[in-house]
User: What shape does this take?
Amino acid sequence: MADWRNVGNWHWKERNCLEWAKKYLDEQLTGVEVSKDGFNAKIDSVDSVNGDADLNIRKGRLIAIYDVEVKLSWTATKGDDKLSGNITIPEVAHDTDDYVYDISASNSSSSMLPLKDFVRKQLTPMITRKLE
Assistant: This one.
């Protein structure tokens, strides 16, 4: 039944799309991988997506508004060395393209620092490209 008070979707209408956003981010980010100089790093999974993702209609135009926190699991290797950890992106939003990456590792010993640095320098730019 048509809403006679909102003919042609002229006034604001909103639809929650968070479940779709979770699925989309999982498809886009899981499996992102980079290899260089014997180093290899990969996103193993999208652990959580929390926040808001809405599709709005105003004056007949579609407007996407989203602001989510994304948590990822990663693994990095070089030879026999293997390190895993998490990346938290506190704000993936419709009005920003400057992402902050909080990177944690399961082992913080100095011998594993090159693997964590590889994730920071090489894997995070790949994630940024997927989010654009």
User: Anything to note?
Assistant: The first helix runs from residue 18 to 29. The chain has a mean pLDDT of 90.
